[in-house]
Task: inverse folding
């Protein structure tokens, strides 16, 4: 297990504050719940829909990558307990898997099958601080959904500088329900709850990505399973 170099500057003024809240939430408040959610242990009805949604989203992102990833380097940005990293390694990729939560990374490392261990380097820290680029692909599943749009876009631009083929990422699509929940969340103290998810219109994301030279948005797909809603987008290099 290696440590990543922390990013000295976040993409925007709010990036560092959100990152700190995410670290506290996943490393302390929600650690046990997250470990259970990402296992095959029984969970309640609500969390079961979240588990199903995450599994469907992970399958979507994997379907957008070649079945043979031999010789390719991939950054799993926000690896959590390692399910995606393990699947990438099974396809032959060399994976750098990074997460803010040292405790989740430890679980990911412990869950790694022995035959895959040599293909995955685990890092604790900021996904923007990993210095071991360049990468062929970056996958950021639900890693940017808590950041303001300008910070998420700035983060994607930084990741693009070290990526040769594609970036697959997810965001919270702007729907009436998510917009209402977001507005209500601003009215009440967060307490022990997860950091707020920031919904963004799909068209707004696509237009922003088109302003970056050498890149274009490609495939997209929304996954909605009960209490889980997320939108995946493939961003590919053109030059």
Result:
């Amino acid at each position: 297990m290696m440590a990543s170099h922390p990013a000295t500057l976040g993409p925007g003024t709010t990036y560092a504050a959100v990152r700190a809240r995410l670290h506290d939430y996943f490393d302390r408040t929600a650690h046990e719940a997250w470990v259970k959610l990402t296992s095959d242990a029984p969970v309640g009805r609500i969390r079961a829909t979240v588990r199903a949604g995450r599994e469907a989203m992970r399958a979507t992102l994997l379907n957008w990558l070649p079945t043979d990833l031999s010789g390719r380097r991939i950054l799993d940005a926000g690896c959590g307990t390692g399910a995606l990293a393990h699947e990438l390694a099974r396809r032959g990729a060399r994976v750098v898997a990074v997460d803010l939560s040292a405790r989740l990374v430890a679980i990911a490392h412990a869950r790694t099958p022995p035959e895959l261990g040599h293909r995955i380097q685990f890092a604790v820290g900021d996904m923007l601080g990993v210095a071991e680029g360049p990468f062929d692909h970056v996958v950021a599943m639900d890693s940017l959904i808590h950041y303001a749009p300008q910070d998420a876009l700035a983060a994607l631009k930084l990741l693009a500088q070290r990526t040769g083929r594609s970036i697959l990422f997810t965001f919270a699509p702007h729907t009436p329900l998510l917009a209402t929940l977001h507005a209500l969340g601003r009215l009440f103290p967060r307490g022990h709850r997860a950091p707020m998810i920031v919904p963004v219109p799909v068209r707004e994301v696509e237009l922003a990505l088109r302003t970056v030279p050498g890149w274009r948005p490609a495939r997209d797909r929304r996954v909605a399973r009960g209490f889980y809603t997320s939108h995946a987008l493939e961003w590919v290099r053109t030059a």
